[in-house]
Structures are given as C-alpha cells and as structure tokens.
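F.,

This is the one I mentioned.
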C-alpha cells in the first residue's frame, strides 16, 4: 500500500499552481457560495487554511486506509485495480470547501484530519473514477444517464469530484444545483438526483458497508 501525507507547504504549492483548474473555473455563483469576491481571493483563503498532519492523525489515517484497502480488495471484480491506487492525503481547515472531504488530481482533502473508513472508501471510489474512466462511463451508460450540458448551467455547483457534464435520467436533472442565485454556502443545493459520479460513489459505498455488516 502506498500512502503519502502532504505537508502544509506541499498543499500550499498545489493550491498556488491549481493544476486541475478548480479555482480558475469557479463561477460567480460559486464565489458567492464561498463568501468571496474572486477566484484569486478564494485561492488565497484556501492557501491560508493548509495544515500539517499530527503524528496521531497520520497513525489513525494510515490504519483506516489499510482497513479500507483490505475491504476494497474484496470488490476488485467490480472495481479492478482500486487497491493499487495510492493514498495521498492533504489537510486544510474549514475555510476551504466548507469542510467537505473531496478529491482533486489524485489527492484526498480532509478537513481537520477527519478519520472514517466509510469516508475513505467513498473518496477512493472517486479516485478510481478518474483512473478507470472507462468503467465510470459504463456505469453512467448502463443506468440510463444522458448528457445534457457540456459547460456550466447557471445554478450548477462546482464539485471537484465530478466531471464537467450535467446529466438527465427519467426526465430529471442529475447534478448539484444551488437553490438560489445567492447561495449562503456550498451545500445550499437542491435535494434532487445526484450527479452520476456521486451516485456511483454512494451506491458502491452503501453496498460495501452493507456487505461488511452482513459478513
């Protein structure tokens, strides 16, 4: 198992370079939800939130990553190669992405060193979706999702765990959509169908957790 903990300095460098373009692609409505006036201001705020992991956090996160991989090894037929994907963790304060764990460019971002096996299974599935886009695309197609936008619908929430598309299934839009044009925070979204990549991560995590409880 490969596991890396980024230092605050390394995380700061990642934010500064913005290799996946997350900061650069934030829309005006995303900036409102994050309480900033510009992408540059949000990048600065995010850079100021970076933290080092404590020795205790490193120990517990390592143990939980090992446990998650041992569980995911039983699901290699459905998620081939998932245990070979390296674990790379970065730590920030809640000023970055409202305290929500997520992935960017192969890195799992954790807020205040949160530790939960179920959470890491969910986030590693998002890493898997990037590495095995072919399988993610098969999931999307098999469940009847149709791409309806390649771009930014007006109220769409930026989410680094999903692709650039908005989808529809059974006549419903499946994506993160803000409830208004003036969202007070990034979780101020409609309680509707999820983006298929989020749905896939939740579906597999739920199935795996249920399998664990039945075993």
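My design for it:
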């Amino acid at each position: 198992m490969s596991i890396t903990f980024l230092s605050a300095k390394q995380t700061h460098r990642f934010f500064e370079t913005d290799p996946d373009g997350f900061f650069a692609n934030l829309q005006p409505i995303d900036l409102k939800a994050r309480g900033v006036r510009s992408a540059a201001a949000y990048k600065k705020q995010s850079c100021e939130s970076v933290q080092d992991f404590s020795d205790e956090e490193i120990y517990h996160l390592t143990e939980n990553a090992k446990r998650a991989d041992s569980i995911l090894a039983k699901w290699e037929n459905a998620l081939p190669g998932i245990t070979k994907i390296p674990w790379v963790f970065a730590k920030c304060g809640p000023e970055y992405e409202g305290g929500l764990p997520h992935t960017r460019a192969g890195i799992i971002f954790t807020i205040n060193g949160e530790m939960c096996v179920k959470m890491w299974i969910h986030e590693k599935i998002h890493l898997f979706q990037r590495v095995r886009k072919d399988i993610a695309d098969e999931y999307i197609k098999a469940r009847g999702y149709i791409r309806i936008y390649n771009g930014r619908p007006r109220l769409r929430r930026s989410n680094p765990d999903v692709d650039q598309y908005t989808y529809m299934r059974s006549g419903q839009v499946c994506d993160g959509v803000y409830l208004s044009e003036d969202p007070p925070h990034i979780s101020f979204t409609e309680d509707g169908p999820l983006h298929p990549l989020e749905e896939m991560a939740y579906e597999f995590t739920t199935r795996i957790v249920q399998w664990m409880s039945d075993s």
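The mean pLDDT is 94.

Talk soon.
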